[in-house]
Model the fold of this input.
Amino acid sequence: MKKRVLSAMPSQTFAEGALDAAQQTGELSYDGYKKVWSDEFNGDSLNRADWNVEIHEKGWVNNELQEYVDSAENIQVKDGKLIINPVKKVTDGDTGSTKEAASYTSGGVSTQNKQTFIYGRFECRAKVPKGKGTLAYPAPFDQPFYIILNLAVGGSWVGNPNDETSFENNPYVIDYVRVYQKDSYDEDVKRPGKISLVMS
Done:
């Protein structure tokens, strides 16, 4: 396990819509920082030396409706991107009447016990899916942490899917994840306040 203890606040970049609309030329650079870890998802499978696949029952957190599974239907690496797909397993007619009764699977990966960091600049270029009842949540933490990329379906926080929620061709697509850190930091500094994540 690689672990670095440093201090700075994470920065994140997200885009809703096509990744092609925000094509970048080359890699970003930050004064005083060097890249210490990244995954560009250039292979044809998830690098399991760096990533764990999360496996959890539905309702494991926030009363979410999906079951996290290790399946190529939900998690794949293709064309230089990690793709996380939510899948509705049954139709409303199969379950009686409500979307809440439907069965969903989704994917989640983390670097827990494989790549952990304290502070730095954390960059993730991703297309976040659109629709009520889905949420991709790479949140900032002010303590040692690992990276989690997942796509939740429903639950007490984001609400449940509705008729406008599309599960066809509406994945969470991650182009890359990069971590930058400085060689040294002034440890005697005031910590910044918490950052709220607002998604519309």
Helices lie at 92-95. The first strand starts at residue 2 and ends at 5.
